[in-house]
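Data deposition worksheet. Section B asks for the primary sequence of the deposited chain exactly as it was used as input, without tags or linkers unless they were present during the calculation. Section C holds the resulting structure in token form. Section D is free text for depositor observations; keep each observation to a single sentence. Incomplete worksheets are returned to the depositor.
Section A, Depositor: J.P.
Section B:
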Amino acid sequence: MFTVVYTERTHAAYAERMYGVSTFSEFIQLLDDDIVSLTGLTLIVIPGCRQYRGYNVYITQLTLSLYLMTQCQLKLRHSATSLAWTLDYTKVAKRRHSIDSTLDRLTLKLIERKVVSNIRTLV
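Section C:
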């Protein structure tokens, strides 16, 4: 569960607990094409991510929510300001994840790339 705090000066997403969503084969069909591709490439390129007990085969609810929010904003053609806020949320979420959270970090990087490229086309 995560809480989004809106204030005049800061736009930040703070997670109280980092719940994970499994990316095992039972759930992979429920995910977006980009997330499926990212998961598959991660498991192929970094064999250590295949371990069951590691955090690498999970994506946190915070990261998945940010990704889905970004996809909605892009499809609905939100303003550059709205996308910039999403970029801020992504940077905060990036600091919350450890180096071992491979899939989370890669997904957050994907969000950043999508947002930045879309902002460039809007400006």
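Section D:
The CA atoms of residues 59 and 83 lie 22 Å apart.
The chain has five helices and four strands.
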